[in-house]
Amino acid sequence: MNYKGFLYTLLLCGQLPLANQLQAQETFSIPTERHAIEVTLAAGSPLRTTMLLTPAQRLSKVDGWFATYGAHLLGRPSAAELEEYITTDPISRQAQVARIARATHYLYNKEYNRARHTLEQVRERTLTREARSEWQVKMAYALLLSGRPVEQVEQLFEMTAAGDDYWGDVARLYLAQLYIAQNNLDKAERTLIPIQDQGDLQYDARLGLARIALYRQNYQSVLTHTEALATARLSEEQRTESQILEANAWYRLEEPNKAIERLAPLAEQKANVLTPEDQLILAAAYMETERTEQAIPHLLLATRGDAETSGVANLYLARARRDMGLYSEALASYQVAADRAVAPTIREAAMYEQVLLMRSKASGSFGQEVRLCEEFLNTFAQSAHREAMEHFLIESYYRSPDYLTSLASIGRIQRPSPVIVEAQCYLLNQLTQQAQQAGDLALAQRYNQQAQRLTIKSAHHTEAELLGAQLLSQQGAYKQASQALTSILNKRTASSKQLQIARYLLGYSQIKQKQYSAATQTLSILLQEGMLDNTLQADVHARLGDAHYMQGHYTPAVRYYEEAYRLAPDNQVYALYMLSDIEGLKKNYKAQIAALDKLVARHPNSLYKPRAMYDQGRAMELSGQHAEAIGAFTRLAQEYPQSEYGRKAALQLALLYYNRNETSRAIETYKALLAEAPQSGEAKQAYEALKSIYIEEGRSTEFVQYANSIGGSYAINESEAMSISFETAERAYQSRQPQAERLLKEYLALKPQGASSLLAHYYLADIYERAGKEADALALYERIYPSRKQLSQELHIGLLQKMSAMRLHQRAYAQALPLQQELLTLPLEPANYQTILLSATESALQAGQYEWVIKVVTPQLDKSKGWSQEQLDRLTCRLATSYLKTGRGNQIESLLKPLVARIETYAGTQGTLLLAQYYVSNKIQQSYSKQLLDKLVNEAYPDPELSAETIITLSDWYLAKGDPDTARLYLESLLKNYTDETSPIRQRAAEKLAQIRQSTAR
Question: Helices in 887-963 by DSSP H: which ranges?
Answer without folding.
Answer: 892-900, 906-921, 926-939, 944-960
